[in-house]
## 1
Amino acid sequence: MSYLRVVKIFVLLLIVAPLVLKMVYIDNVLYEQTGTKLFWAMSVLINDAIIFSGIILLFYLSYLRYMARVGSVVLRCLALFVAFIYLIDILIIINFNSHLVVVDAIKYTSYSLSYLQQIYRGKEWLLILITLVVVGFLLSVVFSRYQIKECYVHGYSIITILILFFVSYFAISSNDQYVHSWAYKNVVDYNWVVLSESKEYSPQFVNDFSFEEKQTCYSRVSEKRNVILLMVESLSSYQSQHFSGIRDWMPNLDKIARNNLSFLNFYANGFTTEDAEIALLTGLLPIYSPSSYTDDGGVAFSGFFDIKESLPNILREHGYASEFLTTADLEFSNTRNWGMSIGFDYMEGQEHPYYENWDRFHFNAAPDEALYDRILNRIELNSQPNFFMFIKTVSTHHPFINPENHNRSEAETFQYADKQIGLFYDKLKEAGFFDDGLLIILGDHRAMVPINAEEIALFGAHKTVARVPMIVSYGDQNSGQETAQYQQTDVFNFLKGLVLDTQCYSDWTGDIFGKKPAQYIAHRRGDLRNLVSVFSGEKEYIVTLSGDQTRMTNNDPKDDEIRSHIVGKINAARLLKNRE
């Protein structure tokens, strides 16, 4: 066998390797969740065939005898670009349980390289980089003068392209109703599907639209307590024995939960940290208006700046000082500007000198231990009569690096976080914080890793991706388990109610204090961005976002009034331009 033929075979294998990798990975992951083998690998092949037929076609045309040299280079570079996008999509699926999305690419561009270096550090990262360079070099330089002359090469190329085109035909009519269909879609098809999220409402629809959400209010005695709202990165129900029985990584958190009020049926309203911050601090559903890349400070928090009825603003009116403390970079996702716009008196991130001598990890953040030390320091120095602290941890962010030994392990990382939560809780008790203080611990969103069969059996496929733990602690003075459904926006309502003499609730906003859960809970989904899940007791509904055609697409309630009410609420959340 000639040297040139060996190189051709090697290059061909490198081209198809990403497809094989995705087929194997998706099949293994979904096999763990469904017990079905090979079906998912074939689904990947069917959906991705169109991508690879395009790549092969571009290469084939670039090596035709009468193709100009400039044209050949352009076609080859275009093929390499498509292959590169495909590879990045696979890396995102493996590491974040989501596809490459155009909006995310814009949002996270500045952090992409450093983040990939953290995930594929050392030889792994170097190997991937070298492979990409070698492939690009071989295809663009070594073969730059090569032209297809052999009839069998023409034949193989055309047959391969036609077969892949034929296989891709089945993807057009494939069943997208599978809960796992997002995983095996190709990156182009996926972005096309979720594009309906960006579809604008027509002026006539906006003009004619109305929605009424009735509230029930009652009087209550306000109580001024110092409040710490601790939002733990990626804290999920499956990691806790108390909240799921699946894993036992959080014994200290479980102990706190047993000795205080634990909410066993609690939901995140979105799938990102920003979504949780919006829900917790403004009480609004983090369901964005049709996508905008420029308004209100960019993609992150778009439409949620300058909320007058935010928690910091409400608390300030009642004598509270509010602080936002984290070891993350507050410039990331425009968090500092957003936080100040909704009324925080003080915001502090990884830039503070307190963290100078600590090791740095994701987002240049010091470990959770340093953050908790800093919080205790701030409490000790506090001179305000009442304070509200919003705390955002970072250590348990993917790729799950244990700060104590730098091991890459999800279990070890959450065990580390649990240890620090336990120590922090004990120190708060020793300092007398609970004499007039309240601590709330919850997750921002479920960890961005594949769901497992145990979770699906326990919670159901759609609810699993929204379930997070939540604890309300008065310092081991009041214990109990709440099994009714609550959500992050209800925490806002609860904390607002602490300082007011009136407490309200509605079909979409629960009252934790009065034990009146919301009838409906909305969750902005991360698998298919154009879908919103709505939970009502045991019932689950799905709403597709598509401008004027926003509609219920699954498990339609027979009652037209309920259907209209659910869709109306989602439209109202997206059309509310002056969020005050």
Note: Confidence is low (pLDDT under 50) at residues 293-298.
## 2
Amino acid sequence: MALLAIGLTGLQPNLLLGAMAIGLGALTALKLWEARSLAEHRIVSLLLLVGAGLQASMRPDLGPSLLQAATIVLALAGLLALELGEGLGWQVLLRRSAQVLAAALPLALVLFLLVPRLSPFSALPSQRGSAATVGLSDSLEPGSISELVGNASPAARVTFPGGQPPAADRRYWRVLVHDRFDGVRWTGSTAPPAGANDPRAISEAAPPTAAASQLWLNEASGLAAVPWSGRGRPLSRELLADGGGELLHRGPSDQRRVYAIADDDSVNLWQRQPPGPGDLGLPRGQNPRLEALAASWAALPAPAQRLEAAHRWFRSQNFSYSARPGTLPQRAPLDAFLFERRQGFCGHYASSFTALMRAAGVPARVVSGYRGGSWVQPIGGNGYLDLRQSDAHAWSEVWLPAEGWRQVDPSLWIANGGPGPAEGRARAGATEWLQQQWWGLDIGWTRLWLGYDRQSQEALLRRLLGDHRQWLGALVLLALGLCLTAALALLSWLQRRSPGDGPRRALETALRQLARAGMAPEPGETLPAFAQRVEQRWPQLAPELRRFVALYQQHRYGPPPRPGRAGRQLKRSRRQLSRRLQRLPP
């Protein structure tokens, strides 16, 4: 029950299944408190198994999976203790419950591979507050932040084909597009689509045969958008790329999300989506010096020339990066930054540059996401890119008619462009090193099991059945029947191979050896009486036989010995008795 309660702490009560699991856990605890009879304790064991299964449906990553497995093993051991009623020790019960689990694994594997997968249950909208920490938010207002507080909590992890990350200058992972500006704050105009028929959605799903090049593990963020490079094709029906280049995930945003993307360097459809009127929106008169500077560039005939003019201007000014820039005034905040303060972080530069481009007549928008990441090569398994909230970054995109939306990072134009890609993050201590190794195992588990999504299942069924999908039910039943037969045979073999506890096995082995020598117990004869008969026939066996009988009776009727000690002593005594028995004359 304690293990089940620990697993409940990671669930979200605003999910349907999460609320059900928490409610079932509370009911199970109450039932355990009031249980008195065998039948009531049996119900508690079964409720524990159902509760662990509910947790597994929502928390399938490695850590919770191990916790759920331990819960199931203990619940099965308790159920076996209730059903067998033989007073078996915990070692025997745990071993038998592990055997039951091993026999059930083929059944679970058949269901996992062949039964159609369900879409995730939706969550209620989460309420999030603003905080001046490094990370992502659905709005960007750099002028209101006086200081950035570092946040090294994990954001996402991703593996790549061939086990190698992209070049450092290509490690931009877009999440949110901010295309609405009120003079102070940048927000996004795109909302999570209700379904595939949303007019903003762009269907770019990869073909069923596409390989999952990138596997992402995105930590809970409260955002519908998830990180990606902006290139590639989603390999999951829960993913949807919208017209702004946001990759939206239909799964619950308050829990970790796993998704795969087929790598593709071609230009995606969102990059060719023409700008709307909002991409030139700029409140006039709020930042007059900014508008005057941009007006001098607007006379240039081509948008690319205006972009180059902005590049030269930023390079010629004495800008610097600072995590403590102080707040900007409410009146003309961008003017104060560009012409007076001239120090800030990525949000300041992306915001001011985008506003300059709009004032110069070039459609532009702000994009927030992550830049860089630390490459981790664990001892075992493939390497992965570790993204932290401290890798959060903001940059710009401008519309060039001959090219589409081009990525521009004005933070790179200043003398010290701030923290770069986190290749050289401080040397990890022992705790962080262990955490990285654990994450390596976690992402390997995810690639092996959680990477098997609807797309992968469709490809498997196509290989097995081709166009004859009507035979899927018969195939499932046949596979389950074969697995059940094999499981029962395995349990029967294990039962014959390992009857009873250790001392009992030692006694039965000694009795078989004596029987082959010609001495077998009579029906109803006690062990001491049988030992006395054996001594009368073979007096030379008396020391070893008496010691063996004394140890066995001490184990059965005396104070409980230390776990495993009685079995070892009896096994040693039985070997001595066997050697003396072999030296008897014919």
Note: Residues 472-497 form the longest helix (26 residues).
## 3
Amino acid sequence: MINIRKLEADLWESADLLRAGSKLTSNQYCMPVLGLIFLRYAFSRFKMVEAEILKNRPVRGGRVMPVEASDFTSKSALFLPREAQYEYLVNLPADIASVELKNQSGHVMNSLGEVVNNAMELVETQSEQLKGVLPKDYTMFSDELLSELLRIFNNSALDEVGGDVIGRIYEYFLNKFAKNIAQDDGVFFTPKSLVKMIVNVLEPKGGVLLDPACGSGGMFVQTGDFVNAAGMEANSAMTFYGQEKVEYNAKLCLMNMAVHGLNGIIKSGDEANTFYHDAHNLDGCCDYVMANPPFNVDKVNSESAQSAGRLPFGLPSVNAKKEFGNANYLWISYFYSYLNEKGRAGFVMASSATDSSGKDRDIRQKLVETGHVDVMVSVGNNFFYTKSLPCSLWFFDKGKGEELQDKVLFLDARNYYTVVDRTLNEWSDWQLKNLNAIVWLYRGEREKYVDLINEYIDQVAEFVNTSEHIEDVPDGYGIQRSFSENLDLLQAKLELIRKKAKQAVDTAAKREKKTVDAEWNERIAAVEAMIVILKEACWLYEKFGEGEYRDIPGLCKVASRAEIAEKNYSLTPGAYVGVAAMETEKMDFMQRMQQIHRELLALQGESNTLMQTISDHMKEMGI
């Protein structure tokens, strides 16, 4: 079996070494490399669909009829002319000029860069959605460098694991570029765990989805995965609309969607500036709205924004220059306004917006009084690649049942996360499932919670059945025991395995030490992975048992609209959930101090931002 994570890392390392050697910046390198990954995906999908077409191909005069572009159109696949096929490009001779190849315009091509540019143009002729989108600046690479890049992405493992995995490779590279292109602040990339949380809570089933600040299209891709996993076909069930002012980001979005086999209508440039344009005329028409808009934007013209509509709760504060000093509540108003009578919205927002004052507070009151605020989630620091500030996730549901009209679920997840490295946190897949389970219980969907508990039980059994080293399974471990009992058994066993590993490495012959160490590390990793799952199972089951929602201090609270009014219409989860009782015997002092330090840094960051905003406003008033 192919290790996808290792494949992703190997491909990135190879490509990034070439980038470093070429003296190109990540920004220059990003689009062309993603374009090659796209081309590799298109070829994998082309070969797969071609094989399907040829299975039942008619024969005339003893010859199988050749495939045509129309055959691919009928299967919603992209036809690739020979000169745009990855296999063709990889096998070209080193001296391009000697072959006397001609591009679409009939001009002789003298470099591999020109040939790849021509391939991109040929692909665009096959897809209305991709016209003008694919990169065509490959002549900035030397033939040697470009040939090596083509070779890197021609890895045979990509064919073994299937074309869908290239979508993962694309996302992985997009993720890595987002971290590297610091000058762009990673604005085109929303961390995957936040996107997954939004999609999981909204549970899209079909209809119109709008992302009016779509960046690289993560909301569309994750929605596609969710809908497909539910047994539907995303392109048939969903209609994807996006707006993205920055054309570079919109191109990334369209390529990302194409790599994942999705179709969408994405508008970019000035006409897609959501502050001033409803580019798709979707006000009141959307089943789902998802977004991660830019936070705390200022200098938005109030008259232009007002004439564009979508402000059902009135205008936020306007300064003497007839500008909004902070556009957060413009976004919030837009997201609500775009929804149809049953629509749901989920979006990322600056933490300060949950209890900002003035006209923001008035808008928030009107929002709460609609009964359509559904779930509010506080997210901790370091979830973004270039910013350490916390944020919040907001969820609206115009189709809430009568029993939930007076309720809002507040979730404080600031202290619930997985540390990726010193500067980055995320929610693991199991943590996402646990947070989603709380939402299910709040909505009365106990059967989904029970399914998740059974999934954890299946994981316990699977560890026994699939463990390559049965001696790593503790005596008495299994589904007959509770999650916490299995966790204790496995943690004790892990200590024994580590001792055995050290002894085995110490006594191994010098030339065998590396191999022995790798073998034992693999065994240890398998046990550690199961321990992580069991910890998450314990975290959930100890709070909600067989599946009855209850308020958990420091984590979750269902509040009524009257309770929210008592708190001056604050939507800050921490104001409702309170503080969890401290379990002194289990408290890790250093870990808690690190958490406090991160929170302090975040507050200092917000303070600096507010001070700068105040200073700017005072200058505007001539003070």
Note: The two ends are 68 Å apart (CA to CA).
## 4
Amino acid sequence: MVSGAAIRRNTRRTRLAMVCLICLFGVAAVFISAGWWHQRAEEQLANKAAETLAVQAEALSGILDKYRLLPPLLSREPSVTALFQPDAVNPQEAARRKAVEIAGMSGAKEVAFFHPDGRVLATASSLFSDNIDEQSRLLVAVQQGRLGRQTVSLDSEQRAYGFAFGIRDNNRLIGAIAVYVDFDPVEATWSLSDNPIFVTDRLGTVFLTNRPQWRLKPLSQLMTQSGAPGHYMVDGKILHSDLTRDLPLLDWQLHVLSDERPMRTAWWTGATIAALVSALLGGIALFMVQRREAHQLRMRRDRASALRLERLVRERTRALSDTNISLSREVDERRIAEEQLRLAQAELVQAAKLAALGQMSAALSHEFNQPLTAIRTYADNAVRFLEKGRSDSVTDNLTRINGLVERMAGLSRSLLSFSRKPGTTIKSVPLVPIIDEALMLARPGAKKAGVALNFKPVESPCAVFGGQIRLSQVFVNLINNGVDALAGREDGELSICIQPGTNETIVRVVDNGPGIPPDQKISIFEPFFTTKDVGSGIGIGLSIASSIVRDFGGSLEVEDGVDGGACFVVRLKSAQETKAAAE
């Protein structure tokens, strides 16, 4: 078995090697993760900038296309041509009003009318009327029959893009109309973007931008190369991805720049995540090494403890073997004693039934003697009637004899059934016939004691779980106890009522006797407890009845009756619920 010092020494070596591997893995993971996050951020910024570039290029081209067709269409208007006719009345004022009207309806920054030689006829706001250079370039294209295009800017930062077209009468150039496009709405839209967006003309001057401080300044003064290709220093910030799109018809270039800070943030984020994951994995690995060491030490201690226990087990095995032999004998003796106890209990139940039969024997002998005396009398009368030839009277006597014999046979069958040893099978049995049989057995004793028995059977079928003979014994015991309690009373009365239910059926046996004192209700179902006189009973009837009802899954309780007597409540499980579920 390996010693504890060797286990600790091997664990220290493993821990040192693990720390070195964790450091190497962490450094590699930091650089790989940081590069991957930086690349993803760069791709996202490039995609966003490209999307912005495409959208703004289309928006700028759409605005210019809107105004590009305006001068050719207006040049064909009769009201515009009439401004340059020799017979025009006050043409300058009419041209000014027309220019104001066109500018207001189209949203143009400026509308101007020119003579063929370049003189200004009228303008809407006189913004660009003094810019002779731009006007001359526009008129050159007009004189050639083309649509003139020209970028126009002033020192006051007034900027526009002009479209000019000639006004002709019978193919003779009589004037020109120029429409100047306002770019302030475009720049206002660009200002919503975080990325710098600007347009440069063919000379590299920033013409349009969402950075007001860049307007009309050379691009070379604003942007300087910063280290890596594609990186520029603008206003002290490093920008990336100089995406550009040419606008050939305008001779412009549209630029979109991206801030490099998100890429640096992504690099540090990736590095931090990789470092944390590496630290976590390293901590888990070191924890597993430490746990393995603790496990090995614990296994060593457990092994030593197991060896000591083995010695103790060997020493005590012999004593345990001897003890097991003696316990086996004791178990066999107790099993035999339990079997004898069960047999004694069964014999006790049967003895209680026979004792009940003994108590009823005097009354039952009277029940048998009366029919026998009547039979003898009817038989003697029949002989005399035969001698006299009165056959109808003989038939009547024989019929009466037959009824009395049937009555005695029924009573005899009930006694035989009650005296048999009951089985242990629990099944669905009808309750009303069982109570009728118990009343048949107990009625002679009740008649002798002057007690009236009342029972009104329920009309609907009523079945419960139990055994027929054992349930009959329960009700015989309850009725006999009630008759004994009412003995000697002139108005003694015992009633039995059934209350059917879905889950349980309740049977109440109520008498109007003296009742049961409260201090005796707790002990009344205990074996050998009785309130009768000595020689009238041994006190096991109610105990046996309670045990039988419990075996059937029910209960036997005692309550105070309405008239002050005792009320025994028998609760039995109804069989209708199981039958309905089966169907």
Note: Confidence is low (pLDDT under 50) at residues 578-583.
